[in-house]
Design brief:
Elements lengths: L7 H17 L10 H21 L3 H27 L9 H20 L5
Length: about 120
């Protein structure tokens, strides 16, 4: 493996970011500085932390950044849950987001568990 771009989890998380931007583009304009911004930042944080961690030296650092990416995934999961409950965003199609996010979280969890335990 040469770079973080070779990681399937990074590639899938980029797919997730694109899907998130498409979805939040349908959110009401009054959410642009609220939920829309929060969701987009949490989504972007996932591949960003995977990339940064991969470029650090050693598995301990990589694992630390994967854990941050995983936490951002949980944050995103929560924000999506909230948006599904709000009247103006409840009827949007979340199926693609849900499946991509679940897949990314599963992949992150597996990768984290495969790395050496941190000191």
């Amino acid at each position: 493996m040469k770079t973080y771009q070779d990681l399937i989890v990074w590639q899938k998380s980029i797919e997730l970011v694109v899907a998130i931007y498409k979805l939040t583009g349908k959110f009401p304009k009054e959410e642009v500085y609220g939920l829309t911004s929060q969701i987009q930042r949490a989504a972007v944080s996932i591949p960003s932390n995977i990339a940064e961690g991969k470029m650090r030296s050693g598995n301990i650092e990589f694992k630390r950044f994967l854990l941050i990416a995983f936490a951002s995934g949980a944050e995103l999961e929560t924000q999506i849950f909230i948006s599904k409950k709000l009247p103006k965003t409840a009827k949007l199609d979340y199926n693609n987001i849900d499946s991509l996010l679940e897949e990314v979280m599963r992949m992150l969890n597996k990768l984290i568990s495969q790395l050496e335990p941190s000191a």
